[in-house]
Write a structure and sequence with these properties.
Layout lengths: L5 H22 L10 H23 L12 H34 L5 H30 L17
Helix pairs in contact: 1-3, 2-3, 2-4, 3-4
Amino acid sequence: MTRVAKSTLALVALVAAVAAYVLVGAFLRALTPIGFGWVTLLAVTAVDVLLALRIRAAISDGGVGQDRSQMHPLTVARSAALGQASAVLGSAATGIGVGLTSYFLTRLGDLAVAGAELPASVAVLASGAVLVGAGLFLESACETPPDDDENGGLAEPA
């Protein structure tokens, strides 16, 4: 599995920021308040960090394998996929937070709702950025350490 590209994360954030800015302007009256939905992003962040620490400890102790007392390799692979998905979700949330924050900042004196929604917009931005970091941390924790032999794990030549 290849690592998620930083350019992909930047592109997702850029598209989400532009979309959020445009869509909030078009549908402001129909939208519900942002509220505390960003707390969910922090909960996913906590799960990612705890899982990354557990996997990192299992890999360093040699506790990854087929035995029941070890962490299964598929669990590590699925966790790497979860890390990538978390990084993309965090990138999208960061972009949405940037779009919302920039929209409400530019209309702070004109719209009464701008002052009320600005703190939640900044919270979405910050929690999305933290989730990107946690997802990348989980993805990097799932990497296998390099082999110590000079043949890269291949059999000795005859």
